[in-house]
Structures are given as structure tokens and as C-alpha cells.
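Anyone up for a design puzzle?
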């Protein structure tokens, strides 16, 4: 092997090893979970020093049928929010990608959601709300049950 070839090979390897090492994703702040509250039965509130968030869903949520979701946000975080995404999943069950962008309506964010059917017959859902701001992502979790 010629010295020139070895140098080129080393440069390629160093570049490959270093690529992306300085790229960091946005900071994620976990706001917690609204424990003891089923958002399909009543509005669920989660308080944090940065914000207070209340998730309200329609009653009697049925899979494969659209339902309305509303998230109200107050506090210091609210004016900095650029985008709100919500993802629905079941713990330990692959339900595919169920991610929605909510639309701003004053201080609340809204969306029309349709959930898939669980072939195992489960109805225990989690809604993971992500609020994107210039300084990072704030994440909150809400639990609820569907009717079928």
C-alpha cells in the first residue's frame, strides 16, 4: 500500500467516524404524566413550573371513528410554543404510527384524531404531547381508554 493511499483511507475513516458527532437534537424536558386521570372521561390537567396543560377528549372514543382533541396551555411556556404534536400508543403493543399535528386556536391547540383497532382487544391508550419551542421540546403524557 502506498503512503498516499493510507493517508486518504485514514482521512475517509476519520471523517466517517466524526460525521454527526456535533449534531445534537433539541433538548427534551419531560413534564410528567397526568396520573389517575382518564382523558376520555374528564379533562386531565398536568401542572409544571413552566406551564399548566389540560387535555380534553370527546367522551366514548371509538377506534376507526374520528374524535376531537383539545389541549389548553397556560403559563410561561405557552407564548413560546411553535408546534404541538401528539402521538398515540399502547404500552408493549405495536399500533403503527399515530402522530398528529395540532392546530392553534388562541391559547388552545386542536385536532381531529382517528385511532386504529387493537387486534388484541386492548383499549388502554397513551397520548404523548410534544410542545416544540425554540429552546427545546416539552413532553407530557396523558392516559385514556377507548370504547372499542
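Challenge accepted. My sequence:
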Amino acid at each position: 500500500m502506498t503512503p498516499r493511499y493510507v493517508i486518504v483511507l485514514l482521512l475517509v475513516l476519520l471523517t466517517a467516524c466524526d460525521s454527526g458527532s456535533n449534531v445534537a437534537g433539541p433538548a427534551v424536558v419531560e413534564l410528567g404524566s397526568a396520573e389517575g386521570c382518564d382523558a376520555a372521561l374528564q379533562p386531565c390537567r398536568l401542572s409544571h413550573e413552566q406551564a399548566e396543560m389540560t387535555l380534553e377528549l370527546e367522551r366514548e372514543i371509538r377506534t376507526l371513528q374520528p374524535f376531537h382533541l383539545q389541549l389548553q396551555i397556560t403559563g410561561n411556556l405557552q407564548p413560546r410554543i411553535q408546534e404541538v404534536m401528539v402521538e398515540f400508543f399502547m404500552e408493549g403493543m405495536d399500533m403503527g404510527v399515530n402522530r398528529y399535528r395540532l392546530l392553534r386556536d388562541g391559547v388552545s391547540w386542536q385536532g381531529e384524531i382517528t385511532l386504529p383497532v387493537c387486534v388484541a382487544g386492548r383499549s388502554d391508550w397513551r397520548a404523548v404531547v410534544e410542545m416544540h419551542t425554540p429552546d427545546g421540546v416539552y413532553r407530557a403524557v396523558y392516559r385514556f381508554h377507548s370504547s372499542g
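A detail worth pointing out: The radius of gyration is 21 Å.
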